[in-house]
Amino acid sequence: MRFPGIRSPWTAGATIVAALAFLGAAIALVQAPMRADLRRQIARRDASIVAAVLEKQIGGGENPDEADPLVALLDAAAIPGLPGMVGARLHAPEGTLFATLLGDTNIPAGASELVAGAIRDEVGVRYTASPRPLLDLAVPLHDPGGTMVGIAAMTLDASGLAAEYERLDSSLARQGWLAFGVLGSAMAAVLGFVFRRLQRLNRLLEERSERLVRANRELALASKTSAVGAVASHLVHGLRNPLAALQHFVARDGRGDAADQADAAATARRMKSMLDDVVRVLRDEQGLAGFEIGGGELCTELERRLRSTLAGHTVRLETHAEEGPSLDNRSGNLALLVLENLAMNAVQAIDGPGTIRVEAGRAAGSGWCFRVSDTGPGIAPAAAARLFTPQESTKPGGTGLGLALSRQLARHLGGDLRLDRTGPDGSTFLLELPADAG
After folding, report:
1. Phi-psi label, residue 287: left if phi above 0, alpha if psi -120 to 50, beta otherwise
2. Is residue 214 part of a domain?
3. What is the pLDDT of residue 63?
């Protein structure tokens, strides 16, 4: 797999920028809840100080049994160390407004929730930034015996708290930028290194892909060359016997009876037919023509090619073809060379009258199975063991290469050629081809 986009430096830059943006967003998302939590802690710290002061005022009287929360609230408001008090209200333990000491008599929005929390003996805190920094508190007041005697609701000037918040935000921002700088630099360095490695791997993949494409072309060329070589060998094998007969006829200065002259003419026609067939096969190998051919058409063409050969023999050729997938003309021509060689071998094997039967039917899968049977004497066991290997021929003028070349052609088409049976009543060869032969 190749990564074309990795070659562009813009891709690497955009990826690094996107990663840094993600890092910045992650740092901001982490800091947001941290900032909110720290602000709550600071506000509660101030609220705890005020609560401690109020509790001290209540418990510091001469008669603890007569602790007055109103007096304590007034005393606390007068303490110079506390932030400026904008408003102060005193609520009964059950939350009812008891007295308003400072500010508006109206209860500020949201203050009732703070008072409700104080009824549960919780210190309520709420910070408001605008239009003026304010801190609303609801502090439960207890007497020295621990009994709640009231709730002090106060609104304090939070200018100092706002300044502390600004310092907190500034500190968190510096820490965030520092973390972003350190982690961003490390991330950019790592991503840059990774992209350089990926670019290098991409170049290697492209080089290997180019080599694979070249190798595939060379294999295709070698495959075609192999097929052409096999066809040429088939031609040499087929012409050897006719040339020997012509050589014998010419050696006698062309003298001979009418039968010899007829044999010479038939031999010449046979050689011309073989040359025409081979030229057609080679033309199809080069892709100059293209069409499909069925099993019945193959059998018909085989009968045509063998007609002149069988004219001088008492051997009968029978063919039968079933419906099946079509073959392209290139594969069909090569299959015809194999079938023709098998039929010619059968003609030479039959001594006297006999029958050659060629059947074309579907294979076990979706391809073709051609069955070539004869009524000859069969093949000797010793010869059958080495049937498809080059060997010394037992026929006059033979090369011993016919079946080996035929199997080579069959395997070039993705199929196989094998001997199915042999015996005194004849032999049967099977040529099996896939549907996409060739």
Report:
1. left
2. no
3. 45
